[in-house]
Amino acid sequence: MSNPILDVYLNAVQVGKLAQNNQGSLSFTYAPEFLHHATSSISLCLPLRAEPFMGPEVKAFFSGLLPDDIAKQKIARYLGLSEKNSFALLQALGGECAGALSLYPEGHPPPLYNDKDIEILDDAKLRDILELLKRHPLLVGEDKIRLSLAGAQNKLPVGFENNRVALITGGAPTTHILKPALDHIQDSVYNELFCMHLAEKIGIAVPKAMILFVGDIPCYIVERYDRKKNQKGSIERIHQEDFCQALGIPPEIKYEREGGPGIAKCLDIINMHFVKPALDQRNFLNIVIFNYLIGNADAHGKNFSLLYRERKPQLAPAYDLLSTAVYPNLSPKMAMKIGGRYDPNDVFLRHWQRIVPNTEPARKNIEKQLSIMAKYTLDHAIALRETFKHDGLVSPVIDAICVLIETRAKRITPPW
């Protein structure tokens, strides 16, 4: 029996083949036709070449397309697969991934779009799907659904137009991500919505996010930044990869203290490969500072991404902005250390200065950036809380976030 092979597509173009040998090792080979015309690779860790890739970077990149942690365990258990068998999971889920990649059994191209692939959901049907998601993450096992998104949180790629959610099957691209409220995290929908809107208020690029009530159930829904509408009105996928994928780091070691990327590695990637490195280094640091201020301790290497709009990447909009520090049951340790410190209570000005070059201009610039970010974030948080109250979105979690921002803003604003 021959070893299984998956054809890898970038939108409708076949870019190569992913294979698994008898020992379970993965290899990836670019298609000769793609190499002839390609202007960029599918990943920084998989540069264009004719020879096959057979190292750990192959598994790191492709397993990075799959859900993380508990969601992957549930999916694997339901499908009767090993959670460590990335190939088999991609075979089951790889039709609609983050970015523009999709994977199909060898010789079976992506299906053509069909109007029947889009089902507009009424509230009753949507409530049923929200219940089903608790048992079957990403609706795995449902007919014609092959969806995969990285991350540990329960979520579902969907279509969304005219305030109605659509279930997408077949080959059509999804446009939004739906996240139901988390059972074990109080008002998670209000928390993430507030943090995302706050980031937008202070000038951080984020996709448009909103709250959707299904009866009395609040859901968080956000546009996919890796999708765009073309001049004909059709939805196109945009290629992307997260920083772990770009560095060839497996998703299971996404936290810096386990071997995942830290701030310095991310800044190096931006400097070496981005189309506008100086601008995106500043944008990246703004997101790092913002995550510190709101208390998002889970800002690991898979929560920052490279977006390929041109031949060279740019920093993707910020996503998964959630204040974890307001929940006593969650770890306060930051996913990426600041100046050698994982505990936010141990971070002072001198630690921020260590993440930039050891020059006076660089130190003064980070001081100014910290001061501006602290003031803008706190001022806009107070105003945004009032806006949320006016709209009926009231939560003690939002109050706690504002108190946390005020406390941390004082730590990074002169005098230190």
Head-to-tail CA distance between termini: 67 Å
Under the CATH scheme, the architecture of the largest domain is Orthogonal Bundle
The strand line-up of the biggest sheet is 5-7-6-8-10-9
- Secondary-structure element series: EEEHHHHEEHEEEHEEEEEHHHEEHHH
Structural class estimated from helices and strands: alpha+beta
Topology-level CATH name of the largest domain: Phosphatidylinositol 3-kinase Catalytic Subunit, Chain A, Domain 5
Mean pLDDT, to the nearest integer, reads 91
The portion of residues forming beta strands comes to 15-25%
Could you explain the architecture of this structure?
With 416 residues, the protein is of the alpha+beta class. It has three domains: 5-105, no CATH class; 115-223, Phosphorylase Kinase, domain 1, CATH 3.30.200; 246-411, Orthogonal Bundle (Phosphatidylinositol 3-kinase Catalytic Subunit, Chain A, Domain 5), CATH 1.10.1070. The chain is built from twelve helices and 15 strands. A six-stranded antiparallel sheet has the order 5-7-6-8-10-9. Strand 6 and strand 7 (164-168) form a beta hairpin. Helix 6 packs across helix 11 (360-390), helix 9 crosses helix 11 (360-390) and helix 11 (360-390) runs antiparallel to helix 12 (396-411). The chain is globular and about 65 Å long. The chain starts with a strand and ends in a 5-residue tail after the last helix. The mean pLDDT is 91.
